[in-house]
Amino acid sequence: MKKSIHSFLFIFLHILAQLCVPNNSHSQNLKDSLEYYYTLATNPKNETDLSRAYDFYKRHKEQSLLLKDTLNAISDLRFMTSIQKNLGFLHDSEASATEALKLLDQIKTNESATEAKLGLYNHLGILHRSFYNYVRALDFYEMALKITKTPKDSMTLLNNKANIFIDQENYELAVKQLYLVYNNSLKYKDSLQIARALDNLGFAESKLNLPSALPHMLEALKIRTQQHNIKEIYISHSSLSKYYLKNKDLQKANFHAQQAYTLAKSIKSTSLIEDALSNIINLNNDSYVLEYKNLKDSIAKSIQLNRNLYSYNKYNYDKQEKELFISEQKREKQKFIYTSVGIIVLTSVLFIYFLIKIKHKRDKLNDIYITETRISQKVHDELANDIYNIMNRIQNQSAKAQDFILNPLAEVYKKTRNISHESSAINLNNAYYHLEIKEMLNAYGNEQTSISIIGIDKEIFKDIKDHKKIVMERVLKELMTNMKKHSKASNVLIRFKKDKKKMHITYADDGVGFKKKEYIKSNGLQNAENRIKNIKGSFNFDTEKEKGVTIELSFPI
Fold first, then answer.
1. In 3-state terms, what secondary structure has residue 515?
2. Going by C-beta distance under 8 Å and a sequence separation of 6 or more, which residues neighbour residue 554?
3. Which residues have CB under 8 Å from 544's CB, separation 6+?
């Protein structure tokens, strides 16, 4: 595959892309720059042209990436790889080609992307041949062959593979491969490819001392001369010089070596001039010169192999560092995940534990409520009714017997009825629950005791759990019952107030009050406090003898 053709295709894409935007000075300047630096990259006239072209394509690549123009960035990288190779920075060229391949993986596969990948694989194959890494070079050629679309590209790649076989001195396999390339080239009438196949075929055949070697090489030179392709003509003269040197024909070997040198000078190709001079030195009979040249070639090869080893080790070191960093990040991520899972599990367990505990307490309160309600119902249905029947029977006795028995029995009946009332069932789902509470509190008033209720309405009991409503009503009944029995109060005040977190109830009366030791002996108030604390509430009182009592209740909603 000729780099110049692929480079031209990509510069054409650059130019075409610019022509598709509005015609203004900026786009025209960019078009001119692309054309100018393309000329510098493909046909440098002085030693700074390649460096200037490289700087341009590097900047243009960064701009293309910023604009998310991936295809243009890949095109820029391909120019950079070619320039770096021509400047002798082979490993940098490899890095640029690898970067381009990574960008290609990010875009959708299409004809342009496939062509770019094909060119990059071929370029990497050429680079690894320069590294003497023949196995890797063959790998890249095979990858390119898998995606090739045209016979011309296939023949180029097969020809490059054959060159690897020649380098490996596997001449039989090289000859077999090159005959395949040659026959296909004849089929598609590709003159330059025919010439390239014939020249390589003749060189491989010469190593096997086959008689067809020289005719094939001379035919290749003839075709190339007809095509006026100077670089290809140079290759033919260089090959023929080596052929005649092998066969001890120094006159012809020197002729072709001089022809190659003249062509290299005419196109001012530093690399070709160096190669031509190397061939001329090989024709020199001076043993010192030949020894120096062979030593120089050996050192150059050794340096290249050491560079390869250094780059390989550096790559592996960077790769290991990267893998270590990724592994460390993975461990940290796993540690974070395990810690997070542990915290979530622990939090869940604690949450479930407290949920079960709260449910247990709620169930316990509900059981108490059910038990109290059942006892209340039993007292009402059995004990109170039996006492009432006994009272009816006694009424038929004498007046003296009635007074002796009926009055105490009436008190027992009254107490029994009160017990039943205090622990009776509560209708929690009633929409008028607040009115029931108000009615219950007012029921404790009479001519001697005035009941005042502040802050009670429908909204005040909204969002309060049922089991807390039960506790609240029981506590209020116990406070009111205690007032009825002991306080001798003329005025009673019950105030309701709710904030975002708690319900607050204040009870106050102007009765006789009591001291703390009397409070401790009061089962009713002690029960009220225990009930409130069972729902995480507070029960505080302030009392002085002859001055009444104030009790502050609060519990979370």
1. coil
2. 502, 503, 504, 505, 537, 538
3. 513
b/e for 338-372, b at 16 or more Cβ within 10 A?
eeeeeeeeeeeeeeeeeeeeeeeebeebeebbeeb
Q: Please state, in angstroms and rounded to a whole number, the distance separating the CA atoms of residues 46 and 104.
A: 33
* Both tokens assigned to 163: 């060159």
Average pLDDT, stretch 378-401?
57
| DSSP category for residue 380 | I
Phi first, then psi, for residue 423 (nearest 5°) are -115, 20
User: What mean pLDDT, rounded, does the chain reach?
Assistant: 79
Multiple choice CATH, 429-556, 3.30.1330.30, 3.60.15.10, 3.30.565.10, 3.50.50.60: 3.30.565.10
Asked whether the beta carbons of 534 and 361 are under 8 A apart, the reply is: yes
CA 226 – CA 217 distance, rounded (Å): 15
DSSP 3-state assignment of 553?
strand
CB-based contact 456:436 (threshold 8 Å): no
Residues pairing with 226 in the sheet? none
pLDDT of the residue at 199: 95
Burial 273-296 (b: 16+ CB within 10 A, else e): bebbeebebbbeeeeeeeeebeee
What is the pairing mode between strands 538-543 and 491-498?
unpaired
Domain 1-149: give its CATH architecture.
Alpha Horseshoe (1.25)
Distance between the two ends of the chain, CA-based, in angstroms?
Answer: 83
- Residue 524 is encoded by which pair of tokens? 């009713």
Give 324: exposed, middle or buried? Use CB within 10 Å, 0-12, 13-18, 19+: exposed
The C-alpha angle 166, 171, 177, rounded to 5 degrees, equals 85
- The set of residues, in sequence order, having a beta carbon less than 8 Å from that of 95 and lying 6+ positions away, is none
Per the structure block, which two tokens stand in for 493? 């005040």
Asked if 537 and 555 count as a contact pair (C-beta separation under 8 A), the reply is yes
Domains of the chain, residue spans: 1-149, 429-556
Average pLDDT over residues 342-360: 79
Residue scoring higher pLDDT (525 or 311): 525
Residues 6 or more apart whose CB falls under 8 angstroms from that of 109 comprise none
pLDDT bucket at 4, cuts 50 / 70 / 90: very low
Backbone angles phi and psi of 33, in degrees to 5: -65, -45
Can you name the residues that pair with 497 across neighbouring β-strands? 504
For 172-198, what is each residue's pLDDT tens digit? 999 999 999 999 888 888 898 899 999
In this predicted structure, the answer to whether residue 385 has a pLDDT above a threshold of 80 is no
Token pair in block for residue 345: 């599990």
**pLDDT of res. 241:** 95
For residue range 23-59, what is the model confidence (pLDDT) as tens digits?
Answer: 444 455 666 678 888 888 887 777 788 889 999 999 9
DSSP 8-class letter at 269:
-
Which residue in 384, 449, 448, 452 sits closest to 421, CA to CA?
Answer: 384
